[in-house]
Design a protein that fits this description.
Number of strands: 20
Bound molecules: 1-deoxynojirimycin
Radius of gyration: 24 Å
Strand content: 5-15%
Number of helices: 17
Strand order of the largest sheet: 11-10-7-3-2-1-13-12
Largest sheet: 8 strands, parallel
Distance between the termini: 71 Å
Length: 592
């Protein structure tokens, strides 16, 4: 059925002034991965009660928004990103009543709560898919991507898959269903069938569900792989590159109808709503030019996107092929995004999330300079133009986990990759190197609340062990220590709230070719900020920056290191030192 008419356009309300709609420019978002945050009932899995008990902790840190990774009913094949009911809460996490209480507590502290929206796919246990699979002529058959075997092949035979696309979680993107003799598409696990957004009923059901949550009081959505919802329906083969599989991404990343769908979603769900909402689209493979379109307020698509360029710079042909990051590459990439979204659109800023290894282990020094380098990374991120996201435990400087063997891992991506790579002849030890460095479980070990058993995360057996370094690295110790990473993050968040140049100032990269120093300025009217960071374990001197002498004598707003010795040049930086200076720039107006 063609039914773009079924979804009537709504008109944008003029009642919320534009500045208020962009409240998120001066906001900081904190991501909670519920399984690993705090467990209130001793079953070893974090839950809503655990989050509710930490709302004061988050308010004290000063964050404005909490983004909850999925808490919906789910078989947990991909830790909740496989949803079997969009309108309820997974029992292991709590109940809808518990959710409402949490939302009220969050709102009561002046914070907002954003849900994860996972609508590229459902769980294969979602009733929509159960129906779709039940027969080839079921009315919901077309809600998913069903296709016969490749021409001349039999379903289920090797090579019979409708396309050669490789899944993000290893193997083919196609699963054969012997009962109906066809394959269904799953870009992720076989328990995550892709919804067919070409079908109007699918889109209508998704929008209805989104309105249901907004009516309940949530403040927006983080949209999981939202730039994969529009596929090239001719489903061509991809360029062969992932082992035996081809790269289908040109046919499902930023597909032909994506802008249309996002605009329709905006009209159907957000337009005319009162209140301050936030939408952020997770968009792997998104370029800065495309991001400008997605986040141009005049186009009414999403407020900001998560892009992946900067977290791919230390990877080769695949995410497991790890090599050292070159600072000049990082500056070139982030600098390009700053420039590209300077006039139109908006950046989201992140080092960490539940899919990335811990930033201090990846980009900093998680040994001798753990505290200082974690503060440096926070300083750099929060001082860029854009909305910063803090991932749970980042504010404590939590590190990667000491995983040894494959049985230490829980994540389907790591487990499947290990099996596939070893079956293809790679040595288990070499595969484990990639998993230890890039594996998503690094982000998923329990938040380290104190130095007691299981880091104070649970009184039971945690679903994944706490990092043994919780004896030293934990929230209780960090709160008690004014020099901790936590207090530095609080100061950064506070600075964004107090100093308009942080949220609204323009951005100029300095010393782009310098191999140790990351430096930039932010300017708003008469206020100019300078951020200087030595991203290395060796001292560095930043006297090449423009107006160095003036900066030397300007106000030092924030630093992560002791004041320089009087005998040292003021712009010499200790290993991993970061500073933020402020000066007032008086414009001379010629009145002759
Ligand atoms: C992106 C999510 O961040 C990740 O955790 C998940 O595995 C995939 N999308 C599939 O939903």
């Amino acid at each position: 059925m063609s039914s773009d008419q079924v979804l009537a356009p709504a008109t944008e309300s003029s009642e919320v002034p534009a500045e208020d709609r962009q409240w998120w420019k001066s906001a900081v978002v904190y991501q909670i991965y519920p399984r690993s945050f705090a467990d209130s009932d001793g079953d070893g899995v974090g839950d809503l009660g655990g989050i509710a008990a930490k709302v004061d902790y988050l308010a004290e840190l000063g964050v404005d928004v909490i983004w909850l990774s999925p808490v919906y009913p789910s078989p947990q094949d991909d830790a909740g990103y496989d949803i079997s009911n969009y309108l309820d809460i997974e029992p292991v996490f709590g109940t809808l009543a518990g959710f409402d209480a949490l939302l009220a507590a969050v709102h009561g502290r002046g914070m907002k709560l954003v849900m994860d929206l996972v609508v590229n796919h459902t769980s294969d246990e979602h009733p929509w898919f159960v129906e779709s699979k039940s027969s080839a002529d079921n009315p919901k058959r077309d809600w998913y991507w069903w296709r016969p075997a490749r021409e001349g092949m039999h379903g289920g035979d090797p090579g019979g898959e409708p396309t050669n696309w490789g899944s993000f979680f290893s193997g083919s993107t196609w699963q054969f269903d012997p009962d109906t003799g066809e394959y269904y598409l799953h870009l992720f696990s076989r328990k995550q069938p892709d919804l067919n957004w070409e079908n109007t009923e699918v889109r209508r059901a998704v929008y209805e569900m989104m309105r249901w949550w907004l009516d309940r009081g949530v403040d927006g959505f983080r949209m999981d792989v939202i730039n994969m919802i529009s596929k090239d329906s001719s489903l061509p083969d991809g360029h062969p590159h992932i082992g035996q599989w081809g790269d289908g991404s040109p046919y499902y990343i930023n597909g032909p109808r994506l802008h249309e769908y996002l605009q329709e979603m905006h009209r159907e769900v957000f337009a005319g709503r009162q209140g301050q909402l936030l939408t952020v689209g997770e968009m792997p493979g998104c370029t800065v030019e495309e991001a400008r379109l997605f986040t141009d307020p005049a186009r009414a698509e999403v407020d900001m996107v998560f892009q992946f360029e900067h977290v791919s710079l230390d990877q080769g042909a695949s995410k497991w092929d790890v090599h050292p990051l070159r600072l000049v590459d990082l500056k070139a990439s982030l600098g390009r995004w700053q420039a590209g979204l300077a006039e139109v659109g908006w950046n989201s800023l992140y080092w960490n999330n539940h899919d990335q290894p811990r930033a201090v282990s990846r980009f900093g020094d998680d040994g001798e300079y753990r505290v200082r380098s974690a503060k440096l990374l926070g300083t750099l991120l929060h001082l860029h133009r854009g909305t910063p996201y803090v991932y749970q435990g980042e504010e404590l400087g939590m590190t990667n986990a000491p995983f040894q063997q494959i049985s230490d891992f829980r994540d389907i991506e790591s487990i499947n990759h290990f099996a596939e790579a070893v079956a293809a002849g790679q040595s288990p030890d070499s595969v484990l190197i990639g998993l230890r460095t890039m594996g998503r479980d690094n982000a998923r070990t329990p938040v380290q609340w104190d130095d007691s058993a299981n880091a104070g995360f649970t009184t039971g057996e945690p679903w994944i062990p706490a990092n043994p370094n919780h004896r030293q690295i934990n929230a209780a110790a960090a709160l008690a220590d004014p020099d901790s990473v936590w207090h530095h993050y609080r100061a950064l968040i506070d600075l964004r709230h107090r100093e308009p140049a942080v949220a609204h100032g323009d951005f100029t990269m300095l010393l782009p070719e310098h191999e140790q120093i990351y430096a930039f300025t932010r300017r708003l009217d008469d206020a100019e900020l300078l951020v200087l960071a030595n991203v290395s374990g060796r001292t560095a001197i930043a006297d090449q920056i423009p107006h160095a002498a003036q900066w030397e004598n300007s106000e030092l707003l924030l630093t992560n290191a002791p004041a320089p010795e009087p005998s040292q040049p003021r712009l010499s930086l200790l290993p991993w030192e970061a500073r933020v200076y402020r000066r007032v720039v008086r414009s001379v107006i010629w009145r002759g």
